[in-house]
Amino acid sequence: xxxLSSLFGGTVSLPTWQNIAPSDAQASAxxxxxxxxPQAEKLASGVDTFNEQxxxxxxNNIMPGWSGxxxxxxxxxxxxxxxxxxxxxxxxxxxxxxAKALTGGTGFGTGTIGGNNFVKSLGLTSLGLMNQGETSLQxxxxxxxxxxxxxxxxxxxxxxxxxxxFQDLLQNEMGRVGQENMxxxxxxxxxxxxxxxLGLIAGGAKAGASFAGAGGGQAGLAAxxxx
Length: 227
What we know:
Blueprint: H1 2-8, H2 22-62, H3 66-81, H4 87-102, H5 117-121, H6 126-148, H7 162-188, H8 192-226
Helix pairs in contact: 2-7, 3-6
């Protein structure tokens, strides 16, 4: 039967379609993202470091001393969050208090310089200074975020979404089915060599029949003429 099918051709055996579940695509995407996360984190770290250095250099060019200002702002905000007056302000208050004491004014007095007296001299309480520090931190964080955040690398941009994974699996399955279907159609076609031989035989038989028909007609005409 196989030999005859190879000569005359056979039926096309259609490939079986493999169903793709969205949950399978989702699981595949998650697993792939997890496996690639260490390399993505390494890439993000390198990109963030480079971009931060470039932005800082640019800001130092625009505003000389920018890095120092950032460091000082951090120290000031840290002192406020602890309810403390910054050291430079303390020094100014100490100088003012000493001057008042020498001129007979009211100062901190000997042994009283320090502690919460600096805070009180500004008309503040430790709690009020800490609240002010929280506000300063929020404002400063917003400024830094606006300057540096746009240049930071988003690791999730490297992730493959379940939708992308589903489309990829679907395209692969469609390609597999199409390829197997084409192969099945080609396998079902008759042997071209055998088909050519059949064509030659059929053509020869047709030519012979035409020749025989033409010869018989001429013999009939000859017989009629002899009468």
